Every structure is written in C-alpha cells, then in structure tokens.
Automatic annotation (TrEMBL):
<dbReference type="Pfam" id="PF02536">
    <property type="entry name" value="mTERF"/>
</dbReference>
<dbReference type="InterPro" id="IPR038538">
    <property type="entry name" value="MTERF_sf"/>
</dbReference>
<keyword id="KW-0805">Transcription regulation</keyword>
<dbReference type="GO" id="GO:0006353">
    <property type="term" value="P:DNA-templated transcription termination"/>
</dbReference>
<protein>
    <submittedName>
        <fullName>Uncharacterized protein</fullName>
    </submittedName>
</protein>
<comment type="similarity">
    <text>Belongs to the mTERF family.</text>
</comment>
<keyword id="KW-0804">Transcription</keyword>
<keyword id="KW-0809">Transit peptide</keyword>
<dbReference type="GO" id="GO:0003676">
    <property type="term" value="F:nucleic acid binding"/>
</dbReference>
<keyword id="KW-0806">Transcription termination</keyword>
<dbReference type="InterPro" id="IPR003690">
    <property type="entry name" value="MTERF"/>
</dbReference>
Length: 299
C-alpha cells in the first residue's frame, strides 16, 4: 500500500524502524484513510512520505478527532492547504500536536502583542519548530524582542522572535563574547541584530573567521560588520575569498582607481559580480580563472 503512494524501500524501512506498530495496523481501516486524506488535501506522494516518515505517530492519531481538525485549524489560519503542507514539511509534528492546547496559546500570545495574522501565518508556515518550544520561553522571547525596539507588525519582529527562540539566552551570550572580543559594545550587537537577526545564528568559529578576514585582509574596522551583518552569512571559501582575490588583482594592477563599497562587492549576485568586476576588463580570462580556481577549491 505504501508503495502505491510513492514510498520507496528506504522510506518504508525508516517508517517501520520509527513506528514498529505500523506492521499491526489494519491497511484498509487505518492506513488507507489517512493516506487518502492527505492526498485529498493536495499532498504529493513525496509530501506524504516525508511527513509520515518525519512523524509516523500520526498513524496512531484519530483521523476524525485529531488529524482532520488540526489540518483544518491550520488551513483556516494560513488560508491555504498548500501552506499547511509547507508547514508540515518543515515540521511534521505540527499535525500531531493538539491544536487547541498547543497552537492556540502561541497564536493568542502573538495577537496580544499586536502581531498581525499575516505574520503569525508566516511564522507557522516557515518556522513551525519555533512554536514547538515551551510557551513561557516563547513568551520571554517575544517580550525581549519588543524591548529591543522591534515593531510587532513588521516581518522583522517575527524573524527576531524565531532567532531568539532557537538561540536562547546562553546562545546569545556566547555570540556576544565573540563580538565583544572584536571591540563591539552591547549596542553594536543590537544594531547588527536589528539589521539582520539571522547574523546571530552564525557559529562562533564562523564569526571569528569572517571578522579576521575583513579586519586583516580587507583592511576594515570590525564595526563595519555591525553595519553590514549580512556579510557574516556568506561562505568565506565560496564567496568572500574568491571575490576578494579579484578585487586585490584589480587594485594591484591599477585596473580600478579605488576600492569599491565592500558590501556591494560581496552582495552582488554572481551574474552581476562577473559583469561589474570581471567581464568588463581586457584581463577577463585571467580574472575569471583566478576567481573560478579559488571557488573550485571550496567545492
């Protein structure tokens, strides 16, 4: 039956390993109705396999009293069955947990703080695991984000809550120690967080490496990264170093008069970077080889 719905041998093995009781389930009374329900909601065979392998306990939940009401609750909130599927792919357990006891308290909390329905839907669809944490922890994160000056009606508010809920107080403190070792103040850290909350999710070793690169190789002040924290998100080996080599070649050979805005240099798409800093020069073949060789080393 599972193979009829696109499950491969590896999926079936994983499902049985995680939920051995599936072997004793009645195929027609237990398995088929659930598979047909998910299929009727627009799930592809791949979606069904991914969700059930991720949360095989769904097979033990009542379809009528639990799975269907949960799906419908999410669909009413997200205004789309497809968005429910996206949320379930990101966290299959969102269909397993009791909606009234698990989901509604988080929704009510966000609404009480002035977060609009569209942003709550965005949180559930894109980062459902963020509401899989303890409600008290989540409440503290929401309150802390408000204290940091975020507007609850903005998309940035939700992103900041997601980061804090995943990072925790100890995680924030570990990152702060690294940033402060480069001369940042608590205010500088907040500036970076306001501009790009995801920058606080970067590992301590990555922060150190990128800071060292910009300060020692690019002759920047460390606070430049506080103003442009998006630069902390890029791969050192695949993006920053290859582009820096091209820039140094251009400056060394006096092909450009001055150093361009570094944020622009590193943020440009691949196509635009090649157009602005490689292909427009007579030395394009040499520049391209330099760039490609360094990029290939990172693969």
């Amino acid at each position: 039956m599972f193979k009829r719905y696109g499950f491969c041998d590896a999926d079936i093995f994983r499902l049985i390993k995680r939920y051995p009781r599936v072997l004793s389930c009645n195929p027609d009374k237990t398995l088929l109705p659930r598979l047909e329900f998910f299929y009727s909601k627009g799930m592809s065979n791949t979606d069904i396999a991914h969700i059930l392998c991720g949360c095989p306990l769904l097979l033990g939940r009542s379809l009528q009293n639990h799975v269907t009401p949960n799906f419908n609750l999410l669909s009413d909130l997200l205004l789309s069955d497809n968005k429910v599927i996206s949320a379930a792919r990101n966290d299959p357990f969102i269909l397993f947990r009791h909606g009234d006891r698990y989901l509604k308290p988080f929704i009510n909390l966000l609404q009480d703080h002035g977060v609009p329905r569209t942003q709550i839907a965005s949180l559930i669809c894109n980062w459902p695991r963020s509401i899989g944490v303890c409600l008290n922890h989540f409440r503290k994160c929401v309150e802390e984000v408000r204290e940091k000056g975020y507007d609850p009606s903005s998309a940035e508010f939700i992103r900041a809550v997601v980061v804090l809920s995943q990072l925790g107080k100890s995680g924030w403190e570990r990152k702060a120690v690294v940033y402060k070792s480069w001369g940042w103040s608590e205010k500088d850290i907040l500036v970076a967080f306001r501009k790009n909350p995801w920058s606080l999710m970067t590992s301590e070793s990555k922060i150190m490496a990128v800071m060292k690169f910009f300060v020692e190789k690019m002759d920047c002040e460390s606070l430049y990264l506080a103003k442009h924290p998006n630069l902390l998100m890029y791969s050192l080996e695949k993006r920053l170093i290859p582009r820096a080599l091209v820039l140094h070649f251009l400056l060394r050979n006096k092909l450009i008069d001055k150093k361009p805005n570094l944020n622009t240099l590193f943020v440009y798409s691949e196509k635009l970077f090649l157009e602005k800093f490689v292909n427009c020069f007579d030395e394009a073949p040499q520049l391209l080889k330099l760039y490609r060789d360094q990029s290939d080393l990172a693969k």
